[in-house]
Amino acid sequence: MAQKAFNLLNNKPDIELVVLNGIDFQVVPTYMYAGDVLLLTSLWEGSPNVIKEAMTANLPIVATDVGDVREVIGKTKGCYVTTFESEDVAGKLKKALSFGKRTTGREDIKHLELKEIAKKVIKVYEEVLGNSRRVYSER
Predict the structure, then answer these.
(1) Domains and their CATH numbers in the chain
(2) Predicted local distance difference test score (pLDDT) of residue 67
């Protein structure tokens, strides 16, 4: 799907499709900060980490509507959820490339930071236990 979409845009010689498959995870941030768009064309996912990593790099994203992708990127300008049709992927990829700047992704996913998730988990435990005391301290 990614290759087909890329082929539809291949009339632009300045666009290169770089496939990040089988590379060391420690190198991924380098690609994220060097790239112009992250393209994810998975057929199924749960909550893909690469999407959240791209959001923290403020990288425009084009991704199929799998797992929680729509929830994570749906409100961020420069990020696009696509169908599984190569033509739609190519169209959204063109939009993301035309966006031409970094997104507000990092700010838009602050609610997913570990500290925020921990607060929510603790709140659930407090509600279940019927205990209104705070069991943590903020630093």
Answers:
(1) 2-106 (3.40.50.2000), 109-139 (no CATH)
(2) 95
